[in-house]
Design a protein that fits this description.
heterodimer, A: 250 residues, alpha/beta, Rossmann fold, six-stranded mixed sheet, four-stranded antiparallel sheet, B: mainly alpha, D-Maltodextrin-Binding Protein, domain 2, two-stranded antiparallel ribbon, elongated
Amino acid sequence: MYKIDTQNVDFYYGDFHALKNISMQISANTSVAFIGPSGCGKSTFLRLFNRMNDLIPGTRLDGKIYIDERDIYDKNENVDRLRKNVGMVFQKPNPFPKSIFENVAYGLRVNGVKDQSFIEETVVDTLKKVVLWDEVKDKLKESAFALSGGQQQRLCIARALAISPSILLMDEPTSALDPISTGKIEDLIHQLKQQYTIVIVTHNMQQAARVSDKTGYFYLGELIEYGDTRKIFTNPEKESTQNYITGRFG
Amino acid sequence: MRKFIEKIVEGGFLISGSVSSLAILLIILFLFKEAGGLFNSPVVEDGYVVAVHKDNPVKHLSAEKIMDIFDSEITNWNDVSESEPGIDQDILVFRFSDLTNYYAEEELGDEFQYVPDKISELVSKEPGIIAFFPAQYVAKDFQGRVLADDKISLGDFFGGTEWYPTSTPAPIFGLLPLLLGTLLVSFGAILLSLPFGLAVAIYLAEIASKRTRDFLKPVIELLAGIPSVVFGFFGLVVIVPLIQKVLNLPVGETAFAGSVVLGIMALPTIITVAEDAMRTTPSAMKEASLALGASKWQTIYKVIIPYSISGITSAIVLGIGRAIGETMAVLMVTGNAAIIPTSFFEPVRTIPATIAAELGEAPAGGAHYQSLFLLGAVLFVITLLLSFTVEYISSKRKI
């Protein structure tokens, strides 16, 4: 049984055929990296897992995507519930214009949690989990915008984790951060993959090699190669993969 | 050569900038100079005096008291003042035109040269008299007492509860009925247009499809281009009779009618500004909210509205500004009774409507004229405060 199972997925933006016949299986509690040159469809593919692409008018999906063996594009699927189970961290840190506390509590509140002590407990636990607690414990009431970029991104991860998803999608989570903040986030991903299924899109080959168990290489909307990270980076089967990871193009 | 031309163009821009700033400053200066003149005007109409019998203890009479006396609201000197008891004597009101009731025309002389003496004689004869006549007819050895020539005070204007600018002998310039009328009508307009305007703004910014928005937005902006007199006309022939009929009122020209018309007029401002503010919400923030399992509505009221709250507030304040300064439409539908309003459903008169309606009949340079300028200055200060509020709110950092 796979955590995420996609079967023959084709995806269109209007007339543009963005993803071509992609089938991929992701097991629970593994971390998977999507790599590939810009415009290859890796972010589009990622955003299918929490139906974020629904927000873009004029898109169309063929094929099936199952999460925990449920067809998430079934017309009876509750999208809000799906997104509660599939958390997402975005490219740029995007905290809400609220206090640090309220940012983390947001997901709980919109999902109908009223118990204030439970909310407080969860916020503290989650901030500890993303190793941000010591830095913000004295200013929980201050604006999240007062934090540094790296802190904001960890806050966004905390925000996603607070509603206890089982899958965490990360769309180039460190591309807007400095190397030290990037290092902290990568350490965090290492810890988190014990409990969560993590899918991370990255442009940074070393990052993919460092944080993932499996890697998928995308090119022009096709999944060229998908396998153990170690194998992809040391002995890829396809020449295109080889060229990309050795930096010959991309 | 090119540099030289550029310098000239720059100079031209500088001059036009300075000239327009100067023009605005001059207008404001002119406004306040004319307005300030009101407080140099005597309470009694300029060039006239009010006199009483020399044994009458009364020293000062306010404009309101003078009006009450001349309207026969007060008929005994004892009732004039509660603090200082006057003489127990019926008041005899004497206007200059009454002179022929007391004296035959021959007695006044061919060139009215005996008029001062006769007035003096009359005033000394009648202990209860109050006489109002031109200052030029005060005799050298006047046997009565001319009342002290008070000036109109700040308190009279800003605390005054009545507006009778053409009352003789003492016009009354009380700001409160007009100010309260203006605020009531504007407040009502905002109360009506705000929920509606925000709803439309939210719909346009977040819910409507691109096609609906492309159709609706120009229509709403068209609303902003309709001349206000047309709105007034529409209000007069449609809204006023409707209000009168539906609410079963004696007259339909009420503060409420003004609020409805102004509310419609303020809608485009509120909708456009609020919608623009909401559309500046970064899509990353909306996506973050949706990705956490929030519904569309939760995203709107928990993320988009808080994020754009300063823009929404600006929209509200600009809408109020539009409503407060509006003249023509309000003049046409509010009934223009200068009384302190006690409900939405009675006629009121606003500051701009007063200026527009009365400036034509106020003699230039007179107290009435100056009082209208002062009203303009009050309006200017209100809108200035509003725009400072907008500046302050928009500059405030978003949490």
